[in-house]
Specification:
alpha+beta; Aminopeptidase; five-stranded mixed sheet; 5 strands; 27% strand
């Protein structure tokens, strides 16, 4: 899908982004559009940080995709930056049209432009289709991830 404009999200995009986050079996269990205040508060923090890029895929004024690109500075790899991709979502109406690939290729190129040495992401173990998608793009499952809910 090439008829989209990938751009920095604005505060006005937050309701559409939340709807995308809620539009799958996993997201539906942890997101809620009842009160957008926490999302808008988080947006303000993300938007103020020059190492963060909350993106939307805009097709003729409709938000059909989103992801967050975070630039992570580190001392390892001789002080290299890594890019972390999070919360990749494609609207049901745009699935299967290549939008996910368009967004990921955009994120990879943006990371390259910003001097990152690698792009990394995590994906829930239940998302087998997503795993095949990322592998098709050249990502490899090189590490086991751990999380601790607080």
């Amino acid at each position: 899908m090439t008829d989209v404009n990938i751009r920095r999200a604005t505060i006005d995009d937050v309701p559409a982004i939340v709807a995308l986050l809620m539009d799958d079996a996993i997201g539906a269990t942890r997101e809620s559009a009842d009160d957008l205040t926490p999302y808008k508060d988080a947006f303000a923090v993300i938007d103020a940080d020059h190492h963060e890029f909350l993106a939307v895929a805009d097709r003729d004024g409709e938000i059909v995709g989103t992801f967050q690109l975070s630039l992570l500075p580190g001392l390892s790899r001789m002080g290299a930056f890594r890019a972390q991709v999070e919360a990749v979502r494609v609207a049901a109406s745009a699935r299967g049209l290549g939008l996910g690939e368009t967004m990921m290729r955009w994120a990879i190129e943006e990371a390259r432009k910003r001097g990152c040495v690698m792009v990394q992401l995590t994906s829930d173990k239940k998302r087998q289709d997503a795993h095949r998608f990322y592998e098709r793009l050249g990502f490899t499952a090189t590490h086991e991830g751990f999380k601790l809910a607080l």
